[in-house]
Design brief:
CATH architecture: 3-Layer(aba) Sandwich
Largest sheet: 9 strands, mixed
Distance between the termini: 40 Å
CATH class: Alpha Beta
Number of domains: 1
Structural class: alpha/beta
Strand content: 25-35%
Number of strands: 9
Helix content: 25-40%
Bound molecules: S-adenosylmethionine
Number of helices: 9
CATH superfamily: Vaccinia Virus protein VP39
Oligomer: single chain
Length: about 250
C-alpha cells in the first residue's frame, strides 16, 4: 500500500497494544550480530538523512552528533567526513569492530572508568567515539551533550516498557537549540511483533512534546521482501524533526 493510501485508510492509528509487553534482551541483540541476522543495516546509508541533512546541521559546522543504538551505521562515517564529531553507543562489540574494519579506519580502545565493563573505541583521528555498553549506562557527565541526533533504528528498537526511560535520557543529552532527527516505522502491529516496534505519532507527542517542537518532515514507503516475509503488506518510515528550544 502506498503511503497516501495507508493514511487514507486511517491505519496510522492501529493499536500497538499487542507489542506492549514484548522484551528483546541484550543477549538476543548480540546473537543477531553473531548470526548475521542484521537486515536492519543499510549498506548505502539512509536516504532520509541524505535528503534532510540540512535541517540537522542548520548551517552549523563542527557539531557533536549522537547515534543512539548505532550498530555499524555508515552515516557515522559520512558525518565525521564532513568535520563533525560523532559519538555512538552500541551493546555489540562485533558491530563496532565491523564498523571500523569496513571503513578501513584505524582505532584505539580504552576502558570507561565510570562504567564497569564498558569500552570506548575511538578512531585514531579522534572524530568517531563509539561506546560499547548499554545506552542506559550513559549520562551527560560521561559523554557530554549533543548538537544533533540521528535516531534511526533506535527508539523503534527500544523495548516498549523502556521507551520513557530512553527518552528521559535522550532529553538530558541534548544541548539547547539542538536538532534531533527521528525515524519511526508504521505497519500493522497485529501482524509483526517487532522490533522494529510500531510507534504512532501520538506517542511521539506524549514522549517528547513537553521538551521540544515536533515537526513531521516526511513519510516514505520502505516496504521490501523482508517485510513481506514478516507477514506485512505495508511498511512506512516517518521522519520527524525535534527542536530543543531554549
Ligand atoms: C535496529 S538496530 C539499528 C542499528 C542502527 N541504528 C542502524 O540504523 O543501522 C538496533 C541496535 O541497537 C543495539 N542495542 C539494543 N539494545 C541496546 C542498548 N540497550 N544499548 C545500546 N545498544 C543497544 C543492537 O545491538 C542493534 O545493533
Amino acid at each position: 500500500m502506498d503511503p497516501s493510501a495507508e493514511a487514507a485508510a486511517g491505519l496510522e492509528g492501529a493499536d500497538p497494544g499487542s507489542q506492549r509487553d514484548r522484551v528483546v534482551t541484550e543477549d538476543e541483540w548480540l546473537q543477531k550480530w553473531e548470526t548475521g541476522n542484521t537486515g536492519f543495516h543499510k549498506k548505502q546509508g539512509h536516504p532520509l538523512l541524505q535528503k534532510h541533512l540540512d535541517v540537522l546541521l542548520n548551517g552549523r559546522s563542527g557539531l557533536r552528533i549522537f547515534f543512539p543504538l548505532c550498530g555499524k551505521a555508515v552515516e557515522m562515517k559520512w558525518l565525521a567526513d564532513m568535520g563533525h564529531s560523532v559519538v555512538g553507543v552500541e551493546v555489540s562489540e562485533q558491530a563496532l569492530r565491523d564498523f571500523f574494519a569496513e571503513h578501513s579506519l584505524p582505532y584505539c580502545e580504552e576502558t570507561v572508568p565510570e562504567i564497569p565493563g564498558a569500552k570506548m573505541l575511538q578512531s585514531t583521528c579522534g572524530s568517531i567515539s563509539l561506546y560499547c555498553c548499554s545506552i542506559y549506562d550513559l549520562s551527560s557527565s560521561i559523554v557530554g551533550k549533543f548538537d544533533g541526533v540521528w535516531d534511526r533504528g533506535a527508539l523503534v528498537a527500544v523495548n516498549p516498557c523502556d521507551r520513557k526511560r530512553y527518552v528521559s535520557l535522550m532529553i538530558t543529552l541534548m544541548e539547547k537549540n539542538s536538532s534531533y532527527l527521528l525515524v519511526t516505522v508504521l505497519y500493522d502491529p497485529n501482524k509483526h511483533k517487532g522490533p522494529p516496534f510500531y510507534v504512532p505519532e501520538a506517542e511521539i507527542k506524549s514522549l517528547f512534546g513537553d521538551h521540544c517542537e515536533i515537526q513531521h518532515l516526511q513519510k516514505v514507503d520502505d516496504f521490501s521482501d523482508r517485510h513481506r516475509q514478516w507477514g506485512l503488506d505495508y511498511f512506512l518510515e516517518v521522519l520527524y524533526l525535534l527542536k530543543f528550544v531554549p
